[in-house]
Write a structure and sequence with these properties.
Helix content is about 45%, strand content about 10%. The chain is an alpha/beta fold.
Length: about 200
């Protein structure tokens, strides 16, 4: 199914990665569950999707607070990422988004704007055979303020040489859509795996 686009002439497409290009959210949740097992920490699927778009470190801090734990942020984040990378052979693209990538590639420039690390984004795009389709990658560490702050999207627009109002954002989370709106960009809401 091709996702409907808002009206307008767009000169660039900006995509979130996890849950938007890559149908990776179920794999990320499984990696979280496995990584948190040794700490006897529960991270329900409902809460995982409700927190979509939050930085990994923030998730671990919040889980520590909720469960009275002292999980080491860097170690848990690294373990979750390792487990996710091991699941990449099972990764697929989100069909409705993939159709837009295939249809518009070469007509407008593309960028990824993700809260994930460059390593994680690159691994997902490589697994899907899509890395070469993107003109810029804006990942965690490239900007100071996470979504819903518009900084990442504004940086991507600058890198592509396109005004913010001429960009169309593809996002699967409330935080991402809020960031796009704050940047003055139109957005397409990508349904979660539960809604497809």
């Amino acid at each position: 199914m091709l996702l409907p686009l808002p009206p307008g002439e767009f000169r660039a497409y900006l995509f979130d990665c996890d849950g938007t290009i890559a149908d990776s959210m179920p794999l990320h949740h499984l990696a979280w569950v496995e990584a948190l097992k040794e700490w006897d920490c529960n991270f329900s699927e409902d809460l995982f999707y409700a927190w979509g778009g939050r930085p990994v470190a923030d998730i671990i801090v919040e889980l520590n607070e909720r469960h009275g734990l002292a999980m080491p942020i860097e170690a848990v984040a690294a373990r979750q990422e390792t487990l996710y990378q091991e699941s990449l052979p099972r990764l697929t693209a989100v069909p409705g988004v993939l159709r837009h990538i295939e249809d518009a590639h070469g007509r407008v420039p593309f960028a990824v704007v993700s809260g994930s690390t460059r390593e994680s984004v690159t691994a997902s795009l490589d697994a899907l055979g899509l890395t070469g389709k993107f003109d810029a990658l804006v990942c965690a560490g490239d900007y100071a303020r996470a979504k819903p702050d518009p900084e990442g999207f504004l940086l991507a627009a600058r890198l592509l040489g396109v005004s913010p109002e001429s960009c169309l954002v593809f996002e699967d989370t409330d935080l991402g859509v809020a960031a796009a709106t704050a940047a003055g960009m139109a957005a397409v809401r990508v349904p979660s795996p539960r809604q497809r």
